[in-house]
Amino acid sequence: PTLDGLVREEEWASASLLETLKNDLNGEAYNSPDLAVRAGYRGDSVYVSITRALTGDYPVATLTDSIDEEQSDDVIELTLAAPPYDRVVPENRLQIRINALGIVECAKNVCRAVSHLTENVWEIEVAISTEAVRPYRRFNIAVVSPGDTSPRLAWSVTYGDPHNPGRFGDLRLEGVDSE
Question: What CA–CA distance (Å, rounded) separates 163 from 150?
């Protein structure tokens, strides 16, 4: 896909649509057609797109050099983890955070991301180097909206322990991984 923040169906047609996200605190499914997460890879990059229809409040975003550390910004978080999973080891994690204004925090500077916000939709496209992804075996994605009734929607639910990579989903790149 072209990284322009516009999630076009024809560019993402071969990507996998991730299953329903769930409330990370209680595990309840968030069955809503207004949120779609796709992932795939091509060439030397892994790609992720998030499309969120806006039906009420708009995403909160702070216009600064980095994402609001007080966690009041709505953000998309992608986290990859490598062993050991029983404890947090910063060098064994890669975290990417993007807010609605396109402020991107990408550990180790191995990604490119674009955010596109209109009155009807919030779209994000992310590309991460395949070489950067290769050491990580676990993956999670979360849509964090502190002011919402579902403040944290995650693909691999961690039930109130969002930074526990032992509870993330497994990551395999078909045709790339030998395992």
Answer: 18
Scan for tokens 């329903």, then name that residue: 20
CA 87, CA 38: separation in Å to the nearest integer? 29
Query: What is the spatial distance between Cα 29 and Cα 21, in angstroms, rounded to a whole number?
Result: 6
Mean model confidence pLDDT for the chain: 78
CB 130 within 8 A of CB 41: yes
Where helices occur in the chain by DSSP H, the ranges are 9-12, 130-133
| Other CB atoms within 10 Å distance of the CB of residue 92 | 17
Amino acid at 12: W
For residues 16, 54, 139, 110, the Cα torsion angle rounded to the nearest 10 degrees is 100
Q: Are the beta carbons of 125 and 15 closer than 8 angstroms?
A: no
pLDDT in tens, 19-72: 777 877 777 877 777 888 898 888 889 999 999 888 777 777 766 656 655 567
Q: For residues 107 and 111, give the distance between their C-alpha atoms in angstroms, rounded to a whole number.
A: 8
3-state SS, residue 159: coil
